[in-house]
Amino acid sequence: MRKNIPVIAIASLFALSGCSSPAGVAGDTDWPQITQESKPWTRWWWMGSDVDSANLTYNLAALGKAGIGGVEITPIYGVKGREAHYLNYLSPEWMNLLDFTISQAARLGMGVDMNNGTGWPFGGPEVTLEDAATRAVFQEYQLKGGQSLDELVTVRDESQKPFARLNKLIAYTPDGESVDITDKVSVEGKLNWTAPEGKEFTLIALFIGKTRQEVKRAAPGGQGYVLNHFDKEAVMRYLGKFDTAFAEKNAPYPNTFFNDSYEVYGADWTPELLNEFEKRRGYKLQDYFPELLAKGATELSVRVMTDYRETIGELLMENFTQPWTEWAHSHGVKTRNQAHGSPANLLDLYAAVDIPECESFGITDFDIPGLRKDSIRKENDSDPTILKYASSAAHVAGKTYTSSETFTWLTEHFRTSLSQAKPEIDQMFTSGVNRVYFHGTTYSPGDAAWPGWKFYASVDMSPTNPIWKDAPAFFDYIARVQSFLQTGKPDNDFLLYLPLYDIWEGLRGNYFATFAIHGMRERIPDFRKAVEKIMECGYDLDYISDHFISTTTVENGLLKTEGGTTYKALILPAVKYIPAETMEQIRKLTEQGATVIISDHYPSDVPGLSHLEERKNLFQDQLSLFPEVASFENVSVNTMKKGTVITGNNYRDMLATWKGNEELFVSELGGQLIRRKHDNGHIYFFSMLKNNPVDGWIPLGVKAESALFFNPMNGEKGLAKLRKNNGRTELHMQLKPGESIILKTFNRKKIEAEEWAYYQLTGNKVTLNNGWTLQFEESEPAVTESFALETLGSWTDIDNEALKKNMGTGRYSLTFDFTKTPGCEYLLSLGDVRESARVKINGENAGTLYAVPFETTIGSLLRDGENTIEIDVTNLPANRIADYDRRGVEWRIFHEINFVSITYKPTAFDIWDIAPSGLLGPVTIQELTTIHP
Q1: What pLDDT was estimated at residue 377?
Q2: Euclidean distance between CA atoms 431 and 673, whole angstroms
Q3: How many angstroms separate the CA atoms of 624 and 639, rounded?
Q4: Residue closest to 374 by CA, chosen among 387, 361, 364
């Protein structure tokens, strides 16, 4: 249990001090400086690019006042009936307003990012058919010896006939022989070739076609074909339109260019693929079309598919991701990229940009008492094992930030509360995220009728959503957490090898495989289970690719990656396929003093078909230098020159060497945390996202002489209690389910500061359940009556028709007598709140409570005798929008997909039950006494 102080008082303190010393650098006992980057940002949809200077100023001011640090402009489709006001993307008028936006944001202390397109993925009217996303079309024909083909060799798919062109026609015999007969096909498609006698032939034709995919949710001036991301020249032509637009208007560039998740559907080819394949793999893919199309039915098929997948991934990296980033850098701009969805090694793609970005999609079923669980919800696709791809890349490559597209969906529209958002964001923080971008906010004119202009896939972080009233407290929370998580360096324990080639072997079927977040857990179950088992042991980890193993070194027995981050050991999770070069590098690192942990068995083979025997021989040569292990049933620890090889099949046993570094907050208590290093110690962010309250001594995974608690909910800080026990540092912690706390430790310093307050309940409690008065300060529709409440409950249960459909803020007031015990503190608990509350005691602010457990200490505000409590509770807009649909109010006024439900289908909300609203209680005041652990 923590002592709380009023949020508004803390906010004033921040405003006066800047949260830093005069030099702008926080002292040991200070909160880090709150910066533009530590504040949350938001994706800002410009519907139809129908924006003007007055409303841009209005929107930016509202966002900045609430605590948003910056916006990412993404233009999308427009509002019906407003077509005359649309602006074409990158037109001179559009560029003028971009210039205005950047200048206004700067005036407000905000930043501006920009999507390198409209909607997603990259594409538009300048993308010609030649530069558009490309796909392969394979057709088979059967011929017996002595026969000629009667059918014309032309594409059968009617939709591909206008543009698909024959690239290869290869004849194959059952015994594996092949002959290229492409030059025997006339312009009309007539094959002038007779199959030799005595053999049967399968002919496979490759046509290079087009996906015909157009930009999704495109804005005016952005409609058109999706770009071929595998063609560097096409990419540079696409980026050229930005060079022209910025140069012609001499417009300022944004902070960052953004690329959304890779959703280039079915684009599995590029005209130069066969040439690039041969150059990179050393053989002709066309000689193995039957194996490529065999869906992994044989070992040879798996190997050919692996080589294809590796090649297409390299082309995406070298022809899109790297050139795009280099182009942005040439203009002094950084890149932010969502690699998920790509047909490539996600780690390398994430690491190739300045800010890797993951995505939360759905809501997690946390076991937190009192956490409201909506009946309409989307299961989260992004658990920590998925979120860690982006943060691992950032940590291994030395990137400062891991950003997140945050809250794409949690529940249905108009039904998501701040209390549901906080645990999701805590999980993202413990997974390595330290730059939150909300998904998101729609530009909406000040005079637009409620609910304003809306994007369909979003937890609506905008001033027209009632949760906006109390959202600044949530934004402050995020800024405080990120102010710490953006300092220091990562301090995860282990590197876990990403067994990409094993994953590819498991992904049989189509040769083209992507890594979209949807269903990813199910597609790579073995790796996910390995991650979860290691983390359940109380250790944290980052994933590492073959490329980054190749650039890793050894320093003082630790593995040091290219980005300068150090780790205790490298873990191979039951790997079968591994490149010989990677095995050689692991051998070298081990001999130089590193520790490698190998689970279940040694790797046994190399992936792919290219130079197979040569690579197998090299692999076996390297493997032979590792210690012989009779069985992996038991843990074996063997030296290998200066290093160590640990083998076994139980992670807890294999990791026993680091038992002193185990974080029991995770392994024993089920909490989540992330740990970072600073110059004099460590930074922890703890969050308890399950029903397991903590009140006692907890061993830390690091040693410390002193430590400070920082409460990101309200800005309080204090000296934490530490002790030494059995050679470990233990921390006394009090943390309830749903709560979070920051700890800053010091290795050798004895920090002097005011002590953190620890409390225990005395058993004295007052329940404030009746005698309340309810009136509405804000309500739509207006509610002018005042209500005397016999007991607390949903205001929708009151006999008043307007209260069953309103959105707004109700003020609950109560006068009560109270007698304080000298030296005691008092804890106010609001019970069930629908959905957030601002509390005043005797006219003084006691804080904004928006998340479980809806508690704050109020001892300094209470007085002996008569007291007054006022609780302003703001509900969701669910009942209001449901009433709109019942009455047929036309608010879905948008083009294209318009406004769909969480199931991506047009759905009216008139079927919803009335959502409880207000202060449901019970409201209690419990007496606390200070303890000194």
Answers
A1: 82
A2: 8
A3: 14
A4: 364
Measured in degrees and rounded to the nearest 5, phi and psi for residue 82 equal -110, 15
Report the alpha-carbon distance of residue 220 to residue 356 in Å, rounded: 28
- Is 64 a residue whose pLDDT tops 80? yes
d(CA 401, CA 403): 6
**pLDDT tens digits, residue range 604-648?**
999 999 999 999 999 999 999 999 999 999 999 999 999 999 999
Neighbours of 906 (CB within 10 A): 11
| CB 248 within 8 Å of CB 92 | yes
Indicate the helix (H) or strand (E) that contains 96: helix 92-107
Q: How far apart are the first and last CA of the chain?
A: 13
| Rounded Cα distance, 852 and 829, in Å | 10
C-beta separation of 457 from 408 below 8 A: yes
Closest listed residue to residue 511, CA positions, set 293, 300, 666, 307? 293
Exposure string over 168-189, b if 16+ CB within 10 A, otherwise e: bbbbbeeeeebbebeebbeeee
Between β-strands 541-544 and 123-124, what pairing exists: parallel, antiparallel or unpaired? unpaired
Cα angle 353, 355, 356 (rounded to 5 degrees) comes to 80
The Cα–Cα gap between 894 and 81 comes to 9
N residues, the chain: 933
H or E segment and range at residue 722 = strand 722-725
Report the C-alpha gap between 790 and 557 in whole angstroms: 69
493, 475 contact by CB (below 8 A): no
Residue 418 and residue 189: Cα distance in Å, rounded? 63
Which has the closest alpha carbon to 292: 5, 38, 509?
509
CB 286 within 8 A of CB 138: no
CA distance 256 to 855: 39
Q: Where are the beta strands (DSSP E) in 736-831?
A: 740-746, 758-767, 772-780, 786-789, 807-818, 825-829
Q: What is the pTM of this model?
A: 0.96
Distance CA 511, CA 499 (A): 18
Strand 924-931 relative to strand 825-829, pairing: antiparallel
539: its two tokens: 């250790």
Confidence (pLDDT) at 26? 58
Task: Please compute the mean of the pLDDT values over residues 443-460 and round it to a whole number.
Answer: 95
Q: Sort strands 225-226 and 569-573 into parallel, antiparallel or unpaired.
A: unpaired
How far apart CA 685 and CA 743 sit, in angstroms, is: 6
Rounded to whole angstroms, the Cα distance separating 852 from 418 reads 10
Structural tokens at position 482: 């990120």
Residue 578: burial class (beta carbons within 10 Å; 0-12, 13-18, 19+): buried
Q: Which residues pair with 363 in a beta bridge?
A: 379
Which amino acid type is present at position 644? T
Report residue 102: phi and psi, to 5°. Answer: -65, -40
Contact 408, 360 (CB under 8 A): yes
What are residue 559's DSSP bridge partners?
554, 567
- DSSP structural state of residue 70: E
Q: How many secondary structure helices (H) and strands (E) does the chain include?
A: 21, 44
Contact 330, 343 (CB under 8 A): no
Burial of residue 782 (number of CB atoms within 10 Å: 0-12, 13-18, 19+): exposed
Omega before 835 cis (within 30°)? yes
816-850 pLDDT per residue, tens = 999 999 999 999 999 999 999 999 999 999 999 99
Largest CA distance in the chain: 109
pLDDT digits (tens, 9 = 90+) for 230-246: 999 999 999 999 999 99
Q: Token pair of 594, please?
A: 């590193």
